[in-house]
Amino acid sequence: MIKQDVYDEVQGLEPLCQEICHTLWNHPELSGNERESANFLRKILSEEGFTIENNEHLEHAFIAEYGKGKPVIAILGEYDALPGLSQKADIKKEMVSEDGVGHGCGHHMLGAAAIAIKRFLEKGKQKGTVRFYGCPEEELLSGKVKMAYYHMFDGCDAAVSWHPSDTNMAHDQAYLANASAHFYFHGVSSHAAFAPEQGRSALDAVELMSVGANYLREHVIDRTRIHYSTDSGGFAPNIVPDQASAWYFVRAPHMKDVKSTMERLKKVAQGAAMMTETTVDIEMGCGCCELSTNEAFADLAYANLIEADGPKYTKEELRFAKELQKTVEQGIIEKGKNLHQVYDEAMILGVSPRDKWKEAELSASSDTGDVSRIMPTCLFTTACWPIGCSPHTWQATASGGTSIGDKGALYASKVAAGIVYFAVLLLLHNEIVEKLARRCFDIVPQFPAPVNGKGCFCPPIWTFFLQNQLRALLFYGIICGRAFNDRDRFRNKLRGAPLCKIRS
Predict the structure, then answer these.
(1) Of 125, 185, 186, 329, which one's alpha carbon is 20 to 30 angstroms from that of 473?
(2) Residue 448 has what pLDDT?
(3) By the 8 A CB rule, do 383 and 200 touch?
(4) 337-378 per-position pLDDT tens digit
């Protein structure tokens, strides 16, 4: 079986891919409540011949495994939706459900690649194991952190992840580190008119904290993000609220920056409590690390984005995309078109140049970052909505429920399958792998696992990076290439051009 056969296998799974996408899109579930979504994917994968492994601590997390031996490749899937983003697959904003839940981030599309890889292993009689990871609670940035805590990623050699976007792009760097915290203020209630002097407003404290956080934004490093929502603030205007709270997210390029900013934010909260003569309880939520990618792995993703041949859109699809695009601020659309150098169409029709990610850095966060601290992790994006549209919007929900989203998901499955195909074939070239791996061991020192700490900042997720050949090749590939003073040749080798023709 050659790589094109793998792509064709994925193409043959188009009806199944559509079924997965539309079933999950039509039954959106919030983080922590993804019962139907997880069970549906368990059923699909079980019927395909995967062995399902659940975790007693995480009801909606699972591993679907097929194959035997090394390498063990993880395909990361998600299926949680978002509040307030229910939307019909239409160009007009119109909710579907009263609860307001909708797939505004495209997590209903992260599914079909593992089945194609299973069939490749089966038909080609190749050694190797594919694991599809059903990962809940990504929007809470906690699912994969918990899964790592319970050792669900043990034994994997590398992970492949993708995310819906407005472009087809391989990423060397992406996803900021993140931490969240709830701030609960406690005051004294009173009649707001009759005896205001007796009251101590918890809501005042929340508002003053917001003012302090706004001033803090001026004194943090670039790419830091501080954003929040208020959970409560009283029940009636004529009652001084004795309870109020706020939920904050802090993001930054590195976890150390998140930690330092969060400590300063805590002082802001304590100052707000002091000014209002209230008290504050701080409850740290979950946090996640920044994504650690590597150039060699990104090169491999880029090569497969090109080789897999992206979607061809119908006139109706392009017309829908253009109409949907009109609902987005024109300045944002123009910025996206200039970035991707697409001026006439609403959808990107090719692959963004290899280094374009530097101009389109992802300022979001994902618990995929914690997986990248365990094993080499690849991230790429495929276009599932028009240029300029953003995730976490009703436009993303609308596009994700159409054939545009379906095609983006199928394309991503082809790319992921191509990446895994190459990883499996590496085992046919042990002499090359061993040589490169030995060189990596000579150059790069061994990293011991850090001491586990309490709280969200030090989840027990680190393992030894260089325990096998494949990790050494992928994670330290570029270092190895530099050591040989032949980086381009090494990167071409890693793209697999001479290997993709080898038949089993």
Answers:
(1) 125
(2) 36
(3) no
(4) 888 778 778 999 899 888 888 887 778 888 998 898 888 888
Give the structural domain span for 40: 3-175+292-428
Q: Considering only 4-13, 201-210, 238-247, which range has the smallest mean pLDDT?
A: 4-13
267 and 300 together in one domain: no
Sign of CA dihedral 217, 223, 289, 379: positive
Q: Is residue 90 part of a domain?
A: yes
Same domain, 205 and 150: no
Q: Which H or E run contains 379? A: strand 377-383
- Beta strand ranges found along 20-69 (DSSP E): 51-55, 58-68
- The pair phi, psi for residue 12, each rounded to 5°, is -70, -15
**Residue 478 resides in a domain:** no
Distance CA 84, CA 61 (A): 24
Residues in the chain: 504
Same domain, 325 and 406: yes
Domain closes at, from 381, 401, 428:
428
pLDDT at 210: 97
Query: Three-class SS of residue 450?
Result: coil
Q: Sign of the C-alpha dihedral, residues 335, 339, 345, 348? A: negative
Segment 281-302 mean pLDDT: 87
Together in a domain, 319 and 206:
no
CATH number for the domain including 334?
A: 3.40.630.10
**Distance (Å) of CA 436 to CA 11, 422, 485:** 34, 16, 13
Q: Residue ranges of the alpha helices (H) in 308-449?
A: 315-325, 330-340, 368-371, 394-400, 403-425, 430-443
The pLDDT value given to residue 426:
61
Those residues whose C-beta lies under 8 Å from the C-beta of residue 494, and which sit 6 or more positions away, are 296, 299, 300, 473, 477
For the chain, state the CA radius of gyration: 24
Task: Provide the domain count of the chain.
Answer: 2
Verify that 47 and 187 share a domain, yes or no.
no
249 in Cβ contact with 225 (< 8 Å): yes
Gap between the Cα atoms of 73 and 292, Å rounded: 17
* 169, 186: one domain: no
Which of residues 400, 428, 456 is at a domain's end? 428
Q: Which two tokens stand for residue 81?
A: 């939706």
pLDDT at 112: 67
Q: What is the pTM of this model?
A: 0.81
The answer to whether residue 366 is domain-embedded is yes
- Residue 439 in any domain: the answer is no
Secondary structure string (H, E, C) spanning 136-179: CCCCCCCHHHHHHHCCCCCCCCEEEEEEEECCCEECCCECCEEE
Share of the chain above pLDDT 90, in %: 56
